[in-house]
Amino acid sequence: MRMLGHEGSLGDRPHREESKMRMLGHEGSLGDRPHRVFIHRSVIYLFYATVSMVIRVISVVVILGTLAECRIPSISKLNNFDYPAINCRKHSAVLTDFGGVGDGKTLNTKAFNSAITNLSQYANDGGAQLIVPPGKWLTGSFNLTSHFTLFLQKDAVILASQYESDWPQLPALPSYGRGREKPGGRFSSLIFGTNLIDVIITGNNGTIDGQGSTWWDKFQKKQLKITRPYMIEIMYSDQIQISNLTLVNSPSWFVHPVYSSNIIINGLTILAPVDVPNTDGIDPDSSTNVLIEDNYIVSGDDCIAIKSGWDEYGIKVGKPSQNIIVRRLTCISPKSALVALGSEMSGGIQDVRIEDVTAINTESAVRIKSAVGRGAFVKDIFVKGMDLNTLKYVFWMTGSYGDHPDNGFDPNALPKISGINYRDVTAKNVTIAGKVEGISNDPFTGICVSNVTIEMSAHKKKLPWNCTDISGVTSNVVPKPCELLKEKEIECPFPRDKLPIENVQFKTCNFQSSVF
Ligand SMILES: *[C@@H]1O[C@H](CO)[C@@H](O)[C@H](O)[C@H]1NC(C)=O
Ligand SMILES: *[C@@H]1O[C@H](CO)[C@@H](O)[C@H](O)[C@H]1NC(C)=O
Ligand SMILES: *[C@@H]1O[C@H](CO)[C@@H](O)[C@H](O)[C@H]1NC(C)=O
Ligand SMILES: *[C@@H]1O[C@H](CO)[C@@H](O)[C@H](O)[C@H]1NC(C)=O
Ligand SMILES: *[C@@H]1O[C@H](CO)[C@@H](O)[C@H](O)[C@H]1NC(C)=O
Ligand SMILES: *[C@@H]1O[C@H](CO)[C@@H](O)[C@H](O)[C@H]1NC(C)=O
Ligand SMILES: *[C@@H]1O[C@H](CO)[C@@H](O)[C@H](O)[C@H]1NC(C)=O
């Protein structure tokens, strides 16, 4: 355990711990062997050599060997660095301090768990950061702690174990009533946290590789007994930053904040093959005050899906997803949406602001999915500035998504969909401009579409728009929308105020290697 740059405030105890830890670190490290060899040789020479010259030469070798040894611990190989974060930490450790081995083969679950357990003791003393250095760090799932930063350096790769036994099981989420894919529980995510405050997962574009292929394969062959794990799940937590990382091949969803608040997710490159099941990029679920910006996502499912629980379970828990901003997102998702709202929305979804987003070769743009039995609402959704190229649907809303957790859903629980605003959209190579379908005794209302230019593809459907059970207005839209959207001189609204999450200031934090 190293205490960096805080000697003054912590007295001399940390110094002792520090030197103890360094010495421990040498045992079994390469530095240890030359040392013993040199002592052994010098003893022999002291006994048998009479030429003082030889002794002097040996002494020099011993001293050089000792100096070389001081540079050997992993810590001294790490350079100092700065990074932006919502909070900086007083204490630091490197994964290798806890026995981590970055050879891509050794399982590091214990190293992560003991490091984080140890660092959790500093939660109320300035917090701690755990540095994952360059290397391939194979691990099963592990849990985060409060006032904690996990920092992945460039060329650090966390590799997820492909053995189910390395993934503990968790009970179903209360707002889902069961696993999303199977009744019963579910596998814990690779990186999991619950009931936390102030958690950061960031890095200099280090990588987390879910090695999802075995999971996708088992899922498709129906060999799994419970629901697949996500890559990162943070539950019942406040103040979360997930930034500047590359996330690849999650077994299922990538990033899942649930029942949480004050979340910033930025600078992520999220990559999965476009034909694998349920690899959603970022899924804010029953969460409030979420800022998602500057991300690049290629996925087999929705790049972003905003959710809030499933039918009677979600209604009972009643936690909405609200005050959510998505901007500067680039998405490639040939089978799904740039941003989906739902289909699980039974806690409600409101005040979502989506701005300056791009989709390429994607099935649909900002899509609403709901069903009878979901209840709750999707309202006050604002979209401004979409640049779309090669889409099946630009506007797509569905009130008959189905997909129920069980037969216990309430057929009278109708979702209220209202106040859905889109403006400033350009789209090219589009098959269907709009398929906007409400529910027969429960129309979707307050839909507004303005300043939209859609170039249809050569394979376009005869009818570019098809609307049922909806109402709303439209202005300056090409091709001409359906009759149910009334022509009106209007600029669809987009809020001018800022949400509190937009005012969070990043601090410049640093990691300092020890000074000898
Ligand atoms: C955590 O670190 C402290 C300080 O170095 C050390 O005394 C303690 O033994 C460690 N605890 C565990 C559980 O590793
Ligand atoms: C992680 O947290 C979950 C939920 O609290 C718990 O069931 C699990 O045992 C924890 N895992 C470890 C390694 O502590
Ligand atoms: C991070 O790494 C990914 C994958 O190599 C790369 O595509 C992306 O451009 C990198 N991001 C930055 C900011 O360097
Ligand atoms: C992410 O990395 C970029 C540089 O690629 C940097 O400008 C930005 O401040 C970083 N942000 C966070 C929150 O890590
Ligand atoms: C219409 O949308 C385009 C982007 O698609 C934007 O550049 C332009 O400023 C918008 N026009 C008005 C009048 O808002
Ligand atoms: C247009 O979309 C079709 C699919 O509908 C795709 O096959 C084709 O490559 C796209 N063309 C261009 C120029 O992007
Ligand atoms: C329009 O949508 C409705 C409802 O989904 C469907 O029944 C109808 O066949 C569609 N019409 C055309 C022309 O595609």
TrEMBL record:
Cellular compartments annotated: Secreted, Cell wall
Main localization category: secreted
One GO term of the biological process aspect: carbohydrate metabolic process
GO molecular function, one term: polygalacturonase activity
Pfam families from the UniProt entry: Glyco_hydro_28
Lyase listed as a keyword: yes
Keyword set, alphabetical order: Cell wall, Glycosidase, Hydrolase, Lyase, Membrane, Secreted, Transmembrane, Transmembrane helix
Entries under SUPFAM superfamilies matching the protein: Pectin lyase-like (SSF51126)
Transmembrane annotation, as ranges: 43-68
Alphabetized PANTHER family for the sequence: ENDO-POLYGALACTURONASE-LIKE PROTEIN, PECTIN LYASE-RELATED
UniProt record similarity statement: Belongs to the glycosyl hydrolase 28 family.
Protein name as it appears in the record: Pectin lyase superfamily protein
